[in-house]
Every structure is written in C-alpha cells, then in structure tokens.
Design goal:
Blueprint: E1 6-13, H1 17-25, E2 30-32, E3 36-39, E4 45-48, E5 58-66, E6 69-78, H2 82-89, E7 96-101, H3 104-113, E8 118-123, E9 132-135, E10 145-150
Parallel strand pairs: 1-6, 7-10
Antiparallel strand pairs: 1-7, 2-5, 3-5, 4-8, 5-6, 8-9, 9-10
Length: about 150
C-alpha cells in the first residue's frame, strides 16, 4: 500500500439500512451522521463499468464510526451498481476499503498499470477532476474493492 494513502472508511453494502444502523448502535460504540441519498443523476459524471447507469443509481448511505473505524453503510435502492452486485453475489459484508490520496489520477494510473480496472468513477457537478473511483482488486484481495478519494 502506498504510504500516502489515508484510511477513510470501510464500505459495507446492506439490504436494510435502518436495521444495519440499529445493529451497529446496539454494540454501544457506534455513532452515525444523518443518512443521505447518492443519486447518480446529481453528479457531473457517474460511471459504472465505464457507462452512465440507466436508470440512475440511487443508494441510501449512512456514515458512522465504530470505535475509531469509519464505516459507510450502503443500501442500493435503484439501478445497477457495484453495491447491488456485491449483495447479490456475496451478501452483506465489507465490500470496499476507502482511502484518501493526494494525487488521485496518479494513483489510478499506477493501479490500472498493474491490471486493476476502474469500475466506478464519479465527478461532482461543475468539476472536471474525478473525486473518487472504485478499483477492482477482487481477483487478488479476497473479493475486496479499493475506493480512492481525492484528498481535499
């Protein structure tokens, strides 16, 4: 792993976001920010396997912490995305690990050169630079995807 990568969170696709939040809270060590909705139609660019999803991807999301670990719970609501794919093929579990990086495009290039393709890419409206990507490392890392996010 590159020494400049900073752990942000682990992403966990779930079938029922409300139940998952309650389950984590029952541990007595979890806290969550208010839920929000990822709607791919609200992004400047949102590509799943290189294509704009149709219908738009909609995913309910809750960001939280369990002790010192950041977690992102993701419940697919509409459209084809890697989170739904993960639930259908594997079930609930850790689907990705997210890292903030200083130079997103340089890190993407290194991983693509090593044979790991970009499977999800997103850019905010009004911006030209990507804000984040999912890199498909499942073939080497126990069905795990790496998310890289441009550090601010």
């Amino acid at each position: 792993m590159e020494s400049t990568w900073k752990l942000v969170h682990v992403g966990i696709p779930v079938r029922d976001l409300d139940k998952a939040i309650e389950d984590y809270k029952s541990l007595g060590v979890a806290s969550f920010k208010p839920e929000y909705l990822i709607d791919s139609s609200n992004f400047g660019e949102y590509l799943v396997y290189g294509k704009t999803p149709d219908p738009a991807v909609k995913t309910r999301v809750a960001i939280g912490e369990v002790g010192p670990l950041g977690i992102e719970l993701l419940q697919p609501v509409q459209g084809k995305t890697v989170h739904r794919e993960f639930l259908e093929s594997v079930g609930t579990g850790i689907g990705h690990i997210a890292y903030a990086v200083e130079d997103l495009e340089a890190e993407i290039a290194k991983l693509v050169e090593k044979g790991f393709p970009v499977i999800l890419s997103f850019t905010s409206k009004g911006e030209e630079r990507r804000r984040g990507v999912y890199i498909d490392t499942r073939s080497k890392f126990s069905n795990l995807i790496i998310e890289l996010i441009q550090a601010r």
